[in-house]
Amino acid sequence: MAEMPTSSEDFATLPVSIPPLPSYPVQATHYLYLRRNAPRIATANDSRCLFLANVPVDSTEPHFRALFANLVGAGRFESITFEQDRKVAKTSHEPAQAERLAKMHKKRKREDEELQHKREEAAAELPDTWTRQLHRSGSSAVALLADEKSVEAVLKAVRKLKKSKKYPVWGEGVKDKAPPLGSLWLKAHNKMSYPGNDVVQDVMDAYFTVFNRKEEEANQLAKRLRNEPDEDGFVTVTRGGRSAPANRDEAEEAKQRMLDKQKKKQDDMQDFYRFQLRERRKAEQADMLRRFDEDRKKVQAMKEKRGKFRPET
């Protein structure tokens, strides 16, 4: 249980009553903090979302569904995303969404292959061994409500609790909607940690299917790279030889890159030593004096020519 800290002006404090438990037979009060969701990257549902801080460690969606039903009635709460779920979505769902957008320009056959690969990788993972996940103390969540009016109704109901002192009871109305904790939770974990031989065999078969596919893709990539010249225009001959000659255009392009690289290297080494810089400056000064002398002679010749000119009368 958490003591009530000084909350920010942006947050509303929601006290909930924690009933006594066999392991801790004392009634306690837990404080949640709510505000309108305002992420750095805005989404379409931000106006009807609430950001929740300091959620209880045993929180589940049925717990918050019952909590919001106690505050503003049923039908206002839709879903909730916990902090650990958002981290998983950031690493998996967002790239998957980007892949789906990229697939719009690909062939249907390619889409079916990638979908099949994802199914194979999912089948290669061992089943979860916990019937219910606990949350880190002080973690956060984002609750999605029916509309923006529901968000205002929840915040208004939370402000009224300060006067009534009738705090909602945590877990009231949940009953069998969430898997139990305690000894039953640990027994279920112990049982799920030892799946049957048929389950393990299916997972291993799926794993080696994915492994062999990725090995084949790596071999094809290596085979293709053996035919591509490097930046110096050479093709590395590896064990097994090359399956085909390098493309002529690619070789010419690599040769041009090699020449550019050599020229850049020469330019960088031109003034590497101090005496080279001194000699270059002397040469530039001599060239400037030579051109100045040539210009002076041209001007003198033009003056002499102009002095000999006699206009007709």
The secondary structure category is alpha+beta
Order of helices and strands: EEEHEHHEHHHHH
Query: Major sheet, described briefly?
Result: 5 strands, antiparallel
- Note poorly predicted spans: 1-7, 91-98, 101-105, 241-246
Structure explained in plain terms:
- The radius of gyration is 38 Å and the shape is elongated.
- The chain contains 8 helices and 5 strands, in the order E-E-E-H-E-H-H-E-H-H-H-H-H.
- The N and C termini lie far apart (119 Å).
- With 313 residues, the protein is α+β, with helices and mostly antiparallel strands.
- It has a domain at 12-192.
- Belongs to the RRP7 family.
- InterPro entries: RRM_Rrp7, RRP7, RRP7_C.
How are the secondary structure elements laid out?
Layout: E1 12-18, E2 28-36, E3 49-53, H1 61-72, E4 77-82, H2 83-103, H3 108-123, E5 140-145, H4 148-164, H5 183-192, H6 197-225, H7 248-270, H8 274-307
Antiparallel strand pairs: 1-2, 2-3, 3-5, 4-5
Helix pairs in contact: 3-6
Features:
313 residues, alpha+beta, 5-stranded antiparallel β-sheet, disordered N terminus
Summed up:
InterPro entries: RRM_Rrp7, RRP7, RRP7_C. Residues 193-312 form the Ribosomal RNA-processing protein 7 C-terminal domain. By secondary structure, this protein is of the alpha+beta class.
